[in-house]
């Protein structure tokens, strides 16, 4: 049986980042993912509009990443594999109530990235590590079973291969099978909401501003794309099943209503992606020689746009905790995993609680709550200290 320093279940954005970070620490590992090896994303194309339909636009699966995540990714070497033409910086966030006059604006720096392009960019770094013999990758391979002991993990993959390692990292997403096999339970609740995401073309430029409107049936975010007249919308709502059946022109009209003139006429909408939503926290993040990161440890409502940022922060904290120990030393590993859990779990819980609070204040809207939140948004907008705190939180430095 081949023995590695570490094994990572899941080659999503967080798992790939973790493999690169660990390789940079001089560790040798194996990463496996039940999905196919990432493919090159299509070239950044020229969008066309036909009957309110936006064709050949970029992918609607984008994420707002904060300066802390950008710094982390820079260290991993993603830039040389991700064209600047696919990056969209933003410098401000505007939030408003779709049912009243309350609004709030604050400076917030970050980048909108396409998830598939970032995954491809990280995968290029991973491929170089594989060629250098520092990492082994198995695609279309899941986990069959795992034994977690103080002196390391032994696992069997769906391919039949048996692996052992000093440490196992579960980065296999919100429905982590690895977490279940480790017997780690979660606290989770479903929303009746789903999220739809799609690219829209507008009459007015977005001006590199990220926007969010709290509509009566859920938050609608507008994330600016590199093209000045294109945004990705992410609408988390109880009514998306009906929305998916709307004609492009009817959907454009509905989006335009809630954009409240900020983006002018909504001219077209591209194909929609559709996601179920839930909040979930693992009761614990660590086992004997195993640890959860990213959505396997926590998944939160996208209204705060923070899930991926939290996943990258997990990897950074885990690597920093492990730097101080030597893999193979049982006591050292247990202590390092406890440090990691002690740092990350309270911060992730705090972000989850904030997101939940926002969600409850804005949904469902009773008339009294609606008035209170409008007054609250106006009051918040007048408090420079609080706005500074919001800016810091959005940057990932708090
Ligand atoms: C609509 C929407 C908008 C969002 N917007 C933002 C945003 O603006 N900013 C932000 O920071 N976050 C955002 N998020 C959250 C962000 O997308 C997630 O937090 C992030 O993608 C989680 O990454 P991950 O690598 O942990 O998990 P995943 O992306 O789920 O990756 C898990 C990987 O594990 C693999 N896998 C699964 N099961 C197994 C198994 N049994 N064995 C082996 N491999 C397995 C999968 O194939 C996959 O490759 C958003 C989420 C949604 C739904």
SSE layout and pairings?
Layout: E1 2-9, H1 13-24, E2 29-33, E3 48-50, E4 53-55, E5 62-65, H2 67-76, E6 88-97, E7 103-114, H3 115-131, E8 135-139, E9 143-149, E10 152-157, E11 162-170, H4 177-181, E12 186-202, E13 209-215, E14 218-224, E15 230-237, H5 240-243, H6 248-259, E16 266-269, E17 273-282, E18 290-292, E19 298-299, H7 307-323, H8 330-362, H9 367-381, H10 384-395
Parallel strand pairs: 1-2, 1-11, 2-8, 6-13, 11-18
Antiparallel strand pairs: 3-4, 5-7, 6-7, 9-10, 10-11, 12-15, 12-16, 12-17, 13-14, 14-15, 17-19
The chain binds flavin-adenine dinucleotide.
Residues 9-15, 32-35, 63-64, 142-143, 171-173, 177, 195, 197, 234, 275, 294-295, 302, 305-309, 311 line the site of flavin-adenine dinucleotide.
